From TrEMBL:
Signal peptide: none
Any one Gene Ontology molecular-function term assigned to this protein's record: acid-amino acid ligase activity
Pfam families per the UniProt record, alphabetical: Mur_ligase
Keywords, in A-Z order: ATP-binding, Ligase, Nucleotide-binding
Entry-linked InterPro entries: Mur_ligase_N (IPR000713), MurCDEF_CellWall_CoF430Synth (IPR051046), MurE/MurF_N (IPR035911)
Record keyword ATP-binding present: yes
Domain (Mur ligase N-terminal catalytic): residue spans on this chain: 14-86
Name used for this protein in its record: UDP-N-acetylmuramoyl-tripeptide--D-alanyl-D-alanine ligase
Amino acid sequence: MDITAIHQIFLTCTSVTTDSRNCPQGSLFIALKGESFNGNAFAARALESGSAYAIVDEEAYAPEGDTRYIVVENSLKTLQQLANYHRRQMRTPIIG
């Protein structure tokens, strides 16, 4: 899925979160990885807690046919691209 399509999904969501313990209703969960955790493992919990969609980068965590999961190559890179794309859509000058 390209960043334009992901941005369209983002626009339907109430917020973006990377913390499965705090998933407001209708939010977009983005599964990030760290040294001691794999956010993909928490995607199902995020959806159960209220997220509308979950971006994951490991297909094993996305049940086949569940359209709430968006599988990408790299979740962190997708988050960065989404932020950049959204900022460009706003056409606001960036200072600093």
